[in-house]
Amino acid sequence: MDKVQYLTRSAIRRASTIEMPQHARQNLQNLFVNFCLILICLLLICIIVMLL
User: Fold this and answer.
1) Closest CA to 24 of 13, 35, 32
2) How far apart are CA 38 and CA 31, in angstroms?
3) CA–CA separation, 3 vs 6, rounded Å?
């Protein structure tokens, strides 16, 4: 179990030190925003369908 925790911690540490290009970060943010908007729309559609 300690080995697994150590491996996860080191992997997280390694991933957090990776430098990301600015345009890649921008694309990721846009993707995340679009994903959230789609989820919100789906939720609203579900609520409207339940109310009808």
Assistant:
1) 32
2) 11
3) 5
Task: Tell me how many degrees the CA angle 7-12-21 measures, rounded to the nearest 5.
Answer: 140
Structure tokens at 52: 């009808």
Q: What's the CA dihedral at 25, 29, 35, 37 to 10 degrees?
A: -170
Q: Which of 45, 47, 25, 27 is nearest to 35 (CA)?
A: 27
What is the pTM for the complete model shown?
A: 0.56
Q: Summarize pLDDT for 3-48 with one digit per residue, the tens.
A: 888 888 888 888 777 777 888 889 999 999 999 999 999 999 999 9
Measured CA distances, 15 to 4, 8, 11, 23 (Å): 16, 10, 6, 18
